[in-house]
Design brief:
An eight-stranded antiparallel beta barrel has the order 1-3-4-5-6-7-8-9. The chain starts with 9 loop residues before the first helix and ends with a strand. It is mainly beta. It has one domain. A hairpin with a 2-residue loop joins strand 5 and strand 6.
Amino acid sequence: MFSFLRVGGAAAIAIAFAGFAPSTIAQESTSVQTCQPVWSSAPEPLGDREGHAILVSQGSCRIESGPLSGGVLTDVSIWEFDGAKAVRLTESGIIRKSDAVVVINGTGGNFALTMADGKVTGWTASGRDIYLMATGSAAPLAGKSFTWTAKPTGPAGQLTVEAKDE
């Protein structure tokens, strides 16, 4: 049913928190994060059809660029899988930095495994989020949206997320 789990579930775990990609403040409109899974449940089959499942996971990202650089993001996401594709149902997260706190909410996200000869060869993910609250140096972000894309970059579900303010 979930052949992607045979590759350690890394792709599913990695994208489960990819949506929390904070963008930068002021004139910079793109940021990059390095992320890794903290915890993930196994996809839970829903029983109504083959390949239909829910995945819950938690992730952590280090913000590598922009004014929030050095900040740490933690989040929890829920994804609905239909075979090798998923839609993010919900997500919430928080970025902590010495001079700012930002709360993020996911407003949409998609994930797809790439396959060759019946084997997982990679994945793609993208989405849209909103800054629900922002304090300190990040206060100008409050209420703004951003889009993100994610790609795998290393072992154990590591990934890079690039975010752009809208």
